[in-house]
Amino acid sequence: MKIVALLLVFLCYFFQNFVSAQLKIGFYNSSCPNAEFIVKSIVQKRFKNNPSITGALLRLHFHDCGVRGCDASILIDSDSSKNQISEKDSAPNLTVRGYELIDEIKEKLESICPSIVSCSDIVTLATRDAVALAGGPKYTIPTGRRDGLVSNSSVDLPGPTQPVSEILKFFRTIGLNKFDMVTLLGAHTVGVAHCSFFQSRVSDFRGTGRPDPTMDPELVKKLFRLCNTSKPATTLNDVPRTFLDQNTSFIVDNQYYNQILKKKGILKIDQELALDKLSAPIVARFAKNGNAFRKSFAKSMVKMGNINVLVGDDGEIRKNCRVFNNPN
């Protein structure tokens, strides 16, 4: 069984590298010369008014690439008339946001270069630009992705309460390794989490009636007040939330790793990264060396953006990111 598993991982790695080799830097230089400039300018405008967009795009990008590959399947709206529930409305994606920004970029590009720039490339480029605006690394990324033709509610993404070993298994199935896992979870440096994702850690950890002993007591008090003194929520937007990085909440830096070393991880997986022997040495390295994190983050983001991409004649170039060109 181990041999079969290793063979599958190798074939996945080989296929991804073969397909991603068909992507290239400046893919739209001739067909839509201003494409990347347009993406960047619209992201800049949104970031200026709402710097939390960086965290939103990072999550949207990962949740897209982690399911069927980077094919913009997460952008498709459900069709109630046909009883079709899309990926967007699956449980793990209910708090994903940033869709309106992608719509704005797509509408602008369609007015200038109709049916040229894919929604999957827009997500990838917008995320890259948002990372740079938030003080993160600037990196070049190849383009030429095409949009997928399937989006359904069957989504298998790792949850924040799973152990490091289980989350690592997931990363390996999509062609990423241990270093990519620890690096990409560093995107929590600009993320937020609703109380429902961590409330048990501050009140009734694993049915003990006590908080999680691996969380800093002062942070426990702060989060307990946040989650228990708010008005009852009527919509998801009303659910209290907090920054995953309590220090530099809008900056892509290595402070996330320093905080989890101090028992200030909000999500269980955040804290486990600093405690598990599989990930702890990498966490310690990134906490000590911000440049090492920046370099690794850029590398892993490019690598993630190549997961199971569609190129050539596969898929389509959607005219509207929310619907397939031919819904039937």
TrEMBL record:
Cofactor(s) the record lists: Ca(2+); heme b
Cysteine-cysteine disulfides: 32-113, 65-70, 119-321, 195-227
Keyword Disulfide bond: yes
Annotated site location: Transition state stabilizer: 59
InterPro entries named among the record's database cross-references: Haem_peroxidase, Haem_peroxidase_sf, Peroxidase_pln, Peroxidases_AS, Peroxidases_heam-ligand_BS, Secretory_peroxidase
Keyword annotations from UniProtKB, A to Z: Calcium, Disulfide bond, Glycoprotein, Heme, Hydrogen peroxide, Iron, Metal-binding, Oxidoreductase, Peroxidase, Secreted, Signal
Protein family per UniProt: Belongs to the peroxidase family. Classical plant (class III) peroxidase subfamily.
Function: Removal of H(2)O(2), oxidation of toxic reductants, biosynthesis and degradation of lignin, suberization, auxin catabolism, response to environmental stresses such as wounding, pathogen attack and oxidative stress. These functions might be dependent on each isozyme/isoform in each plant tissue.
Name of protein: Peroxidase
Gene name of the record: LOC102588249
